Amino acid sequence: MNMTAPDATAFLADWRIDFDELRAFVRPIHDGVTLLLVGSIADGLANELSDIDLLLLGSGSLERRDAVVDVNCEYATTVMKGHEVHVECWHPDVIDRLVARMTAALDSFDDTGRFEPDQSLDDDRLCLLSRIRNGVVVAGADAAAGWRGRCQSHRLPLYLRQHWLHGFRTLRSKALAEGRYGHPGSAQQQFRGASVCLVGALLCTIGETNTYSKWRPRLLQRHRDTIGAETTDVMLRSLFAPRMTASEMATAFGLLDQIEHDVVSAARLSGLTSP
Fold first, then answer.
1. How far apart, in whole angstroms, are the C-alpha atoms of residue 250 and residue 172?
2. Which residue segment(s) compose the domain that 187 sits in?
3. 14: Cβ–Cβ under 8 A, 6 or more apart, which residues?
4. Are 29 and 23 contacting, i.e. CB atoms less than 8 angstroms apart?
5. Whole-number Cα distances in Å, 135 to 4, 116, 203
6. What percent of the chain has pLDDT over 70?
7. Predicted model pTM
8. Based on the domain organization, do 84 and 170 belong to the same domain?
């Protein structure tokens, strides 16, 4: 599960780091600005080698001489008591454009039952929206609530569900085609990619929006009781499946197609309206 502020404080205490030190590293937090702890620590997936990731939202810049200025954001890195600390500051107008694209896609989907791929967002942008939704507030709680409303964070699981379903369907077709044309290695790669996408869509039905594929096996196990043991085991086998013949792959996709049907029906979708 995602961490609460007390959970995150206790985790960082083992590293002798507190929220005050993180705030001091970034800059003074004024009204309308929020600082979020994001990444693996906030998601409850960190270990002793994990970095500390921070996200600053609001007007202004990082106000640091060592900040790297990009077109869309600024970022800086330091080492604090042996642990790397990274902070990003995204320009508000960039975030507004991302949300406008997400909203347009969802409105189109609500009306037509389709997901328009030309309104899709890349992985970095999806990660940003997920971090805004799930980050632990280090400073500026009121501003954080405002940003989550501005970003329509409550709709992100529905958007990501459609995003990952589109990926699953695309890679499914490619995997079966590669298998039919005698390219088992390429078919297997596409099968695993399709499985990763379907797990992402499945997790969205219970409100889990972590966008990193490396965490899919752990998140499946974390939510095993909610998702169901049988579905969890099918998806784990698919993620780590050995090379298959074309016939075996078609059979495997038969199981995944049933899970896709369950995801589309959104029987377990929490707090969202399925079209």
1. 10
2. 154-265
3. none
4. yes
5. 9, 28, 18
6. 92
7. 0.89
8. no
Please provide the average confidence, as pLDDT, over all residues in the chain: 88
Residue 274 covered by a domain: no
* Residue 198 belongs to domain with CATH number: 1.20.120
The pLDDT of residue 147 is 93
**Is residue 202 within 8 Å of 263, Cβ to Cβ?**
yes
* Helices 184-204 and 156-180, axial angle in degrees (round to 10): 160
Give me Rg for the CA atoms of the chain.
20
Q: By the 8 A CB rule, do 128 and 98 touch?
A: yes
Q: What are phi and psi of 47, to 5 degrees?
A: -135, -175
Q: What is the pLDDT at residue 274?
A: 39
SS3 of the chain: helix, strand, coil, percent, to 5 = 55, 10, 30
Residue located via tokens 């009204």 = 31
Question: Are 158 and 260 members of one domain?
Answer: yes
Say if 177 falls within a structural domain. Answer: yes
